[in-house]
Specification:
Elements lengths: L7 H6 L10 H22 L1 H13 L4 H9 L22 H12 L6 E8 L1 H14 L7 H17 L2 E2 L6 E7 L5 E7 L2 E9 L33 H13 L3 E6 L7 E15 L8 H11 L4 E9 L1 H13 L2 E9 L5 H11 L2 E6 L12 E15 L2 E8 L5 H6 L5 E2 L2 H5 L3 E11 L4
Parallel strand pairs: 1-2, 1-3, 7-14
Antiparallel strand pairs: 3-4, 5-7, 5-8, 6-7, 9-12, 9-14, 10-11, 10-13, 11-12
Helix pairs in contact: 2-3, 3-4, 5-7, 8-9
The structure holds zinc ion (ZN) (2 copies).
One zinc ion binds next to loops.
């Protein structure tokens, strides 16, 4: 105190590990009281020494009890209005202002849980370390720890929300800069919504494809949309979700994907939408489901919406490679096909494994490799001499169009190979994507 102005908090914090059931303010206040009493006693015996101590308490301690005593002895000491503690610059007096600023910052978001932390400029931390090293104090705690505790306590009261160390909805960081001013950073954690979608029409991709010609900037070819297709399953789902939840951005994660020209029927395909920086969390998923479905106008339909987590996204991705799928395929053959041949086809495709090299049609974006995939069950229904319907249940990741065509020998066995004629898929629907219970 002889060297620097110091507030009650900072003085007390230097002895934080001594005593219990009190706070640093009271510790510092008490030390100043004790010193004032001692100085008062000394005034009677060693006037100069007592006076010096009182002066230090009044000036650098900004301590009213010492000032009052000096005034009674005819020595008036008035500190500047901007008296500031050398160590904290008065942060602890400003805590309520900081709390108010935090409340203003987080008001725009709905949340249940939060976590608050602080970052204190290294120059401030060094002042404290230097003092303690010079004077040999070893019972102090750091300014950061005291700040976190004081702010956390008050903020919890003020917000009426719970602190969550594991998965907080929002994370608040209070930065104390070199000049003791403060800045507040708020990070809002994303929300995840799981659901299943059905794609009821053909011709829309699952995710948005950027126009190759302009790279998404917009050109004549894409009608200045930057996209190769007007709509996608992704857009039809995330646009209304973003509108309701008022997030900054959404990411669509599907459990695999169907081809552009394939419908997705049955129970639908599992997906998870991740919404970044959501303003709303207290929403009804039932209402959201209705809203998405009215927005998507029967092209896409969502169901079974529920809350999910980042962990679920990982599971969904892993699942998509193994989950069984059921397809309905409309097959056209070059030569006429008999019922007997279809029976033989069913037998030869049921319960087998298929070797598939990456199909030619996707080779430009996928690595060329051989996949071994299981076909569990095949049922056929003859429509006319050149057309039949095939219901295929197989492992996820199997390319069904190539199972029909043979892809110039890259998939074997295949419908073409077994029937010994050119066969091709003219319509494809996904009827079911199985999920473990
Ligand atoms: Zn201080
Ligand atoms: Zn374009």
């Amino acid at each position: 105190m002889k060297k620097h102005p110091v507030c009650n908090h900072c003085l007390g914090r230097s002895f934080a590990l001594l005593g219990t059931s009190t706070d640093n303010f009271t510790r510092g206040f008490s030390i100043k009281v004790l010193l004032t009493l001692e100085a008062h006693r000394l005034l009677e015996e060693e006037y100069v020494q007592g006076y010096e101590i009182l002066k230090i308490l009044a000036v650098n301690g900004n301590f009213s009890m010492a000032k009052d005593l000096l005034r009674k002895k005819g020595k008036e000491i008035v500190n500047e209005a901007d008296w500031k503690c050398y160590f904290c610059g008065g942060i602890f007096q400003r805590i309520d202002t900081i709390i108010d600023d935090v409340v203003k910052e987080v008001e725009k978001y709905e949340f249940n849980t939060f976590l608050v932390g602080s970052h204190v400029d290294v120059a401030i931390l060094e002042k404290e370390d230097e003092l303690r090293a010079n004077v040999g104090l070893s019972y102090g705690e750091s300014i950061k720890r005291e700040l976190n505790r004081e702010i956390g306590k008050k903020l919890q009261e003020k917000l009426g929300k719970r602190v969550d160390f594991e998965k907080p909805d929002i994370v608040i960081l209070i930065r104390i800069l070199k000049d003791f001013s403060h800045k507040i950073d708020v990070k809002v954690n994303p929300i995840f919504i799981y659901g299943r979608y059905r794609k009821l029409i053909r011709g829309i991709p699952q995710t948005t494809w950027t126009c190759k010609k302009c790279g998404g900037r917009g050109c004549e070819e894409c009608g200045w949309t930057g996209k190769r297709h007007k709509e996608s399953v992704e857009e039809l789902i995330i646009t209304p979700m973003l509108e309701v939840i008022k997030g900054e951005e959404a990411v669509f994660h599907g459990a695999g994907r169907e081809d552009l020209d394939a419908r997705m029927l049955g129970n639908g395909r599992p997906f998870i939408v991740e919404i970044k920086t959501p303003s709303k969390r207290f929403i009804s998923l039932k209402d959201l489901e209705k809203y998405v479905n009215s927005y998507a106008q029967g092209k896409v339909e969502v169901r079974d919406l529920r809350w999910a987590s980042r962990e679920d996204v990982r599971k969904l991705k892993a699942l998509s490679q193994i989950a069984a799928k059921v397809y309905r395929v409309l097959v056209e053959t070059e030569k006429p096909i008999s019922e007997e041949e279809l029976k033989k086809l069913e037998q030869m495709l049921t319960g087998i494994t298929v070797r598939q090299r990456t199909p030619l049609r996707v080779a430009y974006r996928r690595a060329d490799k051989v996949r071994i995939k299981a076909v569990y069950d095949v049922k056929t229904k003859k429509l006319d001499d050149h057309h039949f319907e095939m219901i295929v249940k197989c492992q996820g990741g199997l390319y069904v169009k190539e199972l029909v065509s043979g892809d110039e020998g890259r998939t074997t066995p295949s419908v073409s190979e077994i029937l010994d004629t050119k066969a091709r898929c003219i319509e494809l629907d996904v009827l079911d994507v199985e999920t473990p219970a």
